[in-house]
Design goal:
Elements: H1 7-20, H2 25-39, H3 47-58, H4 63-74, E1 83-90, E2 96-103, H5 106-119, E3 123-124, E4 134-143, H6 149-159, E5 163-167, E6 170-176, H7 180-189, E7 196-198, E8 201-203, E9 207-208, H8 211-226, E10 230-235, E11 237-238
């Protein structure tokens, strides 16, 4: 991995792989239900739902499953009610960690998340202890294809992206959260199909870690990701150049 690799990129490359295995289905269904419950079933009027539907496309969620999830969210069909919760804390090397979850049992989930932090060398903190270190951004990973670095930068300017950075096998495109749909559609109009597309929390500044702490940080992040209630995990660490797990 290149020296600027960070958790948001790793996570969404991993999500694209997991999606092919069907691992993301249940989490995306919960996301769609929660978004529809909060803002209605029309993605044109509900940005959160639009983001969730993009994740559904990425993991090939069947159309009828999507429709049922929206109807359960809006109350047209009976379903479990999920509550949005955010957990914040610190990890190896003093990194900031924030996890967004959807749960039908807050007491169970907070206990389990605290246990993950503690077992992986971290510590859960109070509300808003690290949230200010992050901001929501569109993050789109695209394949290299026929693009080179100069062409990728030109493309980014054309479609309204804030930044385009080369990664191992493609490019990382970031944009304002409100421009996410426009940028994704502009890429597709140019026959560029994103590897993954989401609106995660991105760190305003990042902390470089040595290989030992990097492995511990990844273990913590992956353990949080594996929890059935967690749908998004963010951190502010950079992996060292040439890092391999």
């Amino acid at each position: 991995m290149s020296g600027h690799s960070h958790w948001a990129t790793i996570k969404h490359k991993k999500a694209a792989t997991d999606a092919k295995k069907g691992k993301a289905f249940s989490k995306v269904v919960k996301l769609i239900m929660a978004a529809a419950k909060k803002g209605g079933g029309d993605p044109k009027m509900n940005l959160k739902l639009a983001y969730a539907l993009e994740e559904g496309k990425a993991c090939n969620l069947p159309k009828d499953t999507v429709e049922k999830a929206i109807k359960k969210g809006t109350g047209e069909l009976e379903g479990v009610s999920y509550e949005e919760v955010t957990y914040e804390g610190y990890g190896p090397g003093g990194i900031a960690v924030i996890a967004d979850a959807l749960t039908d049992n807050i007491h169970r989930t907070v206990s389990e998340i605290r246990k993950i932090f503690e077992s992986k060398g971290g510590k859960m903190g109070d509300r808003n202890c690290v949230a200010y270190m992050f901001e929501k951004k569109g993050l789109i990973l695209i394949p290299r294809g026929t693009l080179n670095d100069d062409k990728a930068m030109e493309l980014g300017l054309e479609i309204g992206a804030e930044d385009v950075q080369p990664i191992e096998d493609g490019y990382e495109v970031t944009c304002a959260a409100g421009d996410f749909g426009t940028v994704v559609n502009a890429l597709k109009a140019r026959k560029i199909e994103p590897v993954s597309a989401a609106v995660p929390r991105l760190a305003k500044d990042r902390i470089p870690l040595d290989p030992e702490k990097a492995r511990k940080a990844l273990n913590l992040m992956e353990a949080l990701e594996e929890h059935e209630d967690v749908n998004e995990v963010a951190s502010n660490f950079d992996l060292p150049a040439g890092f391999t797990e």
